[in-house]
Structures are given as structure tokens and as C-alpha cells.
Design a protein that fits this description.
The protein contains 1 helix and 4 strands; from the N terminus they run ββββα. It has 65 residues and is α+β, with helices and mostly antiparallel strands. The model has no long low-confidence stretch (mean pLDDT 86). It comes from Pseudomonas hamedanensis. This is DUF2188 domain-containing protein.
Length: 65
């Protein structure tokens, strides 16, 4: 039985990860933005993106009305 291997880095607020030596992916918590064949390409892409901050969820006010 093999154990999955995860390589994960952070750049500019984005996750840069690879699972089982597969393609490197640049992601936010909810979206996969791009895939690359090398870690260097993925890191360069993440570095070129604007800084990412997780947005707070909006709470709707249902009491008004």
C-alpha cells in the first residue's frame, strides 16, 4: 500500500502544491488557478499574481424588513 505524498508551499497567499510527483498547481482554498510541469514555473506564476487574502463571508441581515 502506498502513501500519497504532498509537497506544499505558499507564495503571495497562494498554495503551490504537487501530489505524488504530479503537476504543480497554484490554488486558493476554493479554486485551482493553473498547473505547471515544474515547481519553478508554478512559483514564478504565483509570484506574478497580486497578493491573495481570504475574504470574509458576507452575512445577510434578515431582520430588516
Amino acid at each position: 500500500m502506498s502513501i500519497p505524498m504532498l509537497n506544499k508551499l505558499h507564495m503571495n497567499g497562494y498554495d503551490v502544491l504537487s501530489v505524488n510527483n504530479g503537476p504543480w498547481r497554484v490554488c486558493t482554498q476554493g479554486d485551482r488557478l493553473a498547473s505547471f510541469s515544474s515547481r519553478e514555473e508554478a512559483m514564478a506564476y504565483a509570484a506574478a499574481l497580486p497578493g491573495y487574502k481570504k475574504r470574509a463571508k458576507r452575512v445577510q441581515d434578515h431582520s430588516a424588513g
